[in-house]
Amino acid sequence: NAGVTQTPKFRILKIGQSMTLQCTQDMNHNYMYWYRQDPGMGLKLIYYSVGAGITDKGEVPNGYNVSRSTTEDFPLRLELAAPSQTSVYFCASRRGGNTEAFFGQGTRLTVV
Amino acid sequence: GIQVEQSPPDLILQEGANSTLRCNFSDSVNNLQWFHQNPWGQLINLFYIPSGTKQNGRLSATTVATERYSLLYISSSQTTDSGVYFCAVAGGANSKLTFGKGITLSVRP
User: Fold this and answer.
1) Nearest by CB to A101, which of B33, B41, B100?
2) Class for domain A12-98, per CATH?
């Protein structure tokens, strides 16, 4: 029972590079989320999805893109990486409605 | 959107002491969770508790939905309880899960 799996766990990017953070869940959850957590801070919502083909912006979407072509996968794309995107990124999922959310282990990204 | 406030922001305890962590929210919710972020950064689910009371060992939680607050109780604290405790909520037709800023707990031996 893998739950929510994020890859990679760590990554160093140079300014201007792009990358995709992968998130997959095997619980058949409808809702999926991407958060970022800056050092010593809480979690801020980047994007979320309530089902395949449906995505919406959260609190801090600038500089990121998402897609949801399947129920299982919710990749987060960073275009033109900037030092301000240095953070820990968490993916989460829940079935929907009145249900519990589960988190992946996070991806620690450094942009230099 | 729903606002979430947690208090106190920081808490220092001696091992064996009890503590109460509070989460206030600004609107009705159908999802409320407490998480523990350990020193390695992992988010551990503690309670899913949109209403009522639950207990799990030394930890218990109570949510009074009509008064828009939730409390997390830690009894006989241990050094392994150290870390950051987050409250997260979602309400009504809004599927967003919003986090509070967290409470940093340090338990001294």
Assistant:
1) B33
2) mainly beta
